[in-house]
Amino acid sequence: MKRAIGSPAVFVAAMLAVAACSGQSTPVPATQTPLPPATQTPATPSPATQPPAAEQYVANAADFVDAADWDTKKTVTIEMTEFAFTPKGITLEAGQPYVLEVVNVGKVKHEFTAGDFFRTVATRKAETAESEVKVPFFTEIEVFAGKNAEIFLIPLVPGTYKLVCEIQGHLEAGMSGTITVTGQTPQSPALQLADVASGPWVQDGAALVEAADWDKKQELRIDLSEFKFTPKEFTLTAGQPYVLKVVNVGKVKHEFTAEDFFGSVAFRKAEDASGEFKAPAPREVEVFAGAEIELYLIPTQAGTYELVCEIEGHLEAGMSGTITTIPAT
């Protein structure tokens, strides 16, 4: 993951200094950085010279997403080709809802990765022609040749962030750019930052994904229709790599959501016909009628988890199931 040219570390340090001088503090777990008083708005940070002591992310992204007027969203189109982003520099305003339309006009897969930027925005979703993927924050987004993905987000932390394509050879060929966020962090809702290391996902997930033998993955298909999962119940083994192929055979959009299960897996990626989406863990996955998405993951904790479709009326019509993870033998 690349360090931002203007890291949020300076922003966090400025907030802590304000809090210290005012004598106010907000109780937080010991592993988190104390948050600033809601009445204080930090100035735009200058470029950082040192990396942050701990990576942080926006812990209350849903508050900003829910409060936003998405009818006022602005669309910014970024094209990817061999080997450039166009425009190379993107400027956004803090607090403004955006749709970043990432279009691959090239002949090979390209990556839209801005790790520090992704952790400082309120992420609503990524959407393609096949699906919607909702996560705490994205770490990487890859778009296949001739395809596009839309990222719905609200920038929150002013600064300048590095944008790269880290597919082998692409960055070396010059495929990089910047995302600059101007203005000031919104005062309401109050921004809450938390350490990535304290997030509600498997903390060693990336290491487990890296160490796994994906040639030995098992595939399981789950069909979505009106209004059921087929199979309704299925069992997985802890430590075994899986690809869950979620296929919507119905006539309307359906959701594949298992919040507690998602928090217990080492998550590699979600992949549909348009691209790949990587994050610490998924929150919700929606699949459009006639489309499909694959979830690459490794269960880590034995238990029985609820599976639901929370689209209005679907759960009430009986669209639920269970995922059981059993210990490795």
Instruction: List the total number of helices.
Output: 5
Helix/strand/pairing class, anyone? mainly beta
CATH architecture of the largest domain: Sandwich
Largest sheet: 8 strands, mixed
Low-confidence stretches: 1-53
Write the layout of secondary structure elements.
Layout: H1 8-22, E1 56-58, H2 61-67, E2 74-81, E3 84-86, E4 89-93, E5 98-104, E6 110-112, H3 115-119, E7 121-127, E8 131-134, E9 140-143, E10 148-155, E11 159-164, E12 176-182, E13 193-195, H4 205-211, E14 218-225, E15 228-230, E16 233-237, E17 242-248, E18 254-256, H5 259-262, E19 265-271, E20 275-278, E21 284-287, E22 292-299, E23 303-308, E24 320-326
Parallel strand pairs: 2-5, 4-12, 14-17, 16-24
Antiparallel strand pairs: 1-13, 2-3, 5-10, 6-9, 7-8, 7-10, 8-21, 9-20, 11-12, 14-15, 17-22, 18-21, 19-20, 19-22, 23-24
Describe this structure in words.
The protein has 329 residues and is mainly beta. The protein has two domains: 8-198, Cupredoxins -  blue copper proteins (Immunoglobulin-like, Sandwich); 205-326, Cupredoxins -  blue copper proteins (Immunoglobulin-like, Sandwich). Helices cover 12% and strands 40% of the residues. The strands form five sheets. It has an eight-stranded mixed beta sheet. Strands 6-9-20-19-22-17-14-15 form an eight-stranded mixed beta sheet. The protein is globular, with a radius of gyration of 20 Å. Mean pLDDT is 88; it is low at 1-53.
Sum up the structure in keywords:
single chain, 329 residues, mainly beta, Immunoglobulin-like, 2 domains, eight-stranded mixed beta sheet, 5 helices, 24 strands, 12% helix, 40% strand, globular, disordered N terminus
